[in-house]
């Protein structure tokens, strides 16, 4: 399903996006060495429910997971990159932590992710990973405009990641979003320009470049959800929900 929203519905999406951005920003500011991943999940639950929103994750049970997910936020540490299930683990100084959050408010969903380094120790390899995903996300957003095709966004994202020296996994990537979290079109993190669905105003997309240092292969934890690099290398992930407008793309998941 692909949904195209009216201006009034996009305005509702702005409110959802701002909430996602604000929650991620608040949690990031609270994480320090020694923070437990279950504490992070509890913070997310409190803020989501306190805003009158609904988690997209708690009851999420797609075919690729061992569902339902049962938590309010994804927490991926170091070699984990996607669908990181919170568990009893404390982050340490220098860890690379990815937070991925999706909520629904007033019937419209928004999805975003941020990777950052915990504490004061900043390994150069981790800094490079994070910066590459953020540049790739910016490139994908810049390519998103009415009349562009999904392949144009994929090409923009993949070009940045490959130029930074990373291989790209296209199994998991960006996606349409709206009244539900995951919709068509799928937006791979590499692709051919001029191919795929034509973007038009009112379309909402979640773009999410992610990479691993020395592989494009994933393995899954025994929890049935957490995806890690096959080699144990570090990973990073960046994501924003955007709305296609008459002139380009508007980022919805920035904190106000």
Automatic annotation (TrEMBL):
Cofactor(s) listed: Co(2+); Zn(2+); Mn(2+); Fe(2+)
Molecular-function annotations in GO: aminopeptidase activity
Every Peptidase M24 domain range: 13-246
CDD domains: MetAP1 (cd01086)
Binding-site list for substrate: 83, 182
Residues where a divalent metal cation 1 binds: 100, 111, 239
Cofactor binding note from Swiss-Prot or TrEMBL: Binds 2 divalent metal cations per subunit. Has a high-affinity and a low affinity metal-binding site. The true nature of the physiological cofactor is under debate. The enzyme is active with cobalt, zinc, manganese or divalent iron ions. Most likely, methionine aminopeptidases function as mononuclear Fe(2+)-metalloproteases under physiological conditions, and the catalytically relevant metal-binding site has been assigned to the histidine-containing high-affinity site.
Pfam families for the chain: Peptidase_M24
Assembly and oligomerization: Monomer.
Protein known as: Methionine aminopeptidase
High-level lineage: Bacteria, Bacillati, Actinomycetota, Actinomycetes, Micrococcales
Gene responsible for this protein: map_1
């Amino acid at each position: 399903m692909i949904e195209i929203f009216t201006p009034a519905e996009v305005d509702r999406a702005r409110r959802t996006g701002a909430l996602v951005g604000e929650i991620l920003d608040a949690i990031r500011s609270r994480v320090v060495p020694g923070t437990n991943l279950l504490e992070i999940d509890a913070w997310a639950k409190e803020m989501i429910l306190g805003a009158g929103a609904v988690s997209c994750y708690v009851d999420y049970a797609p075919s690729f997971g061992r569902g339902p997910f049962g938590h309010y936020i994804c927490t991926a540490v170091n070699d984990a990159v996607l669908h990181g299930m919170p568990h009893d683990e404390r982050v340490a100084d220098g860890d690379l932590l990815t937070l991925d959050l999706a909520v629904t408010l007033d019937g419209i969903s928004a999805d975003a992710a941020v990777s950052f380094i915990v504490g004061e120790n900043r390994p150069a390899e981790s800094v490079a990973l994070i910066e590459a995903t953020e540049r790739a996300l910016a490139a994908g957003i810049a390519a998103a405009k009415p009349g562009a095709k999904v392949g144009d966004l994929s090409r923009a994202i993949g070009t940045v990641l490959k130029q930074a020296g990373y291989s790209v996994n296209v199994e998991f990537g960006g996606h349409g979003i709206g009244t539900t979290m995951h919709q068509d079109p799928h937006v791979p993190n590499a692709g051919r320009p001029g191919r795929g669905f034509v973007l038009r105003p009112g379309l909402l997309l979640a773009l999410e470049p992610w990479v691993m240092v020395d592989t494009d292969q994933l393995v899954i934890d025994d929890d049935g959800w957490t995806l890690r690099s096959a080699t144990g290398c570090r990973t990073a992930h960046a994501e924003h929900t955007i709305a296609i407008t008459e002139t380009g793309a508007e980022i919805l998941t920035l904190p106000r």
